[in-house]
Amino acid sequence: MLAASAMAAPPAPAAPPPPASVQLDRAQIEGLIRAYLLDNPEIIPEAMQRLEERQRNESVAELRAQLEKPFEGAWIGNPEADVVVVEFFDYACGYCRRMAGDIERLVAEDSKVKIVFREFPILGPGSVEAARTALQAARSGGYTQFHRDIFAAGPLTKASLQKVAKKGKIKLPKDMTALDAELSANRRMARQLGINGTPAFIIAGRFVSGAIGYDGLKEQVAAARAAAAKAAPK
Question: In this structure, what are the phi and psi dihedrals at residue 175, rounded to the nearest 5 degrees?
Fold first, then answer.
């Protein structure tokens, strides 16, 4: 028995205590963050872009009801649409002119879409005059035809605007308060959304910039429907 006890293995050493947590003050944390950013500056533009997107999405959500409510007759498509596409555009914008046919094709091929047009004249006095004329056409029920004809006439000029306005029997009123109020409202919304170029779209509450073409529009509309179906209660 004595020999057996002498041969027994010694007891295992006790486990070391867990390390104490490191407490950093605010200055140390900020220093670590600063050092990381200086070592990885490529993440800064990405972070800024995400912040801009987050702020824009918040603004879109806040303004969505107003964005999707058109000025009198300045819209086309299905009034009971499941997807509303809002376009900020300028008649003097070549990219907007290029998108005009794509938008009409989308409406022709998708009976559940509504397009709300937001006049956003940013390319000079001619743009402003064309926007006012379009809004006046909307008040008399001739917006769709004017919109189609002014883009079909090619690059915007004073002569082309006069010709299309004459064809549609559109005359600007002496009191343009209502027309200018609409343009001011559109500029204010564009400013809140960070829109400084055309075309720009809000598709079912999601911001999309640039001349994305028919396929791009179709893809965004499909994505909006898929998102709505996923969010719907089961």
Answer: -95, 105
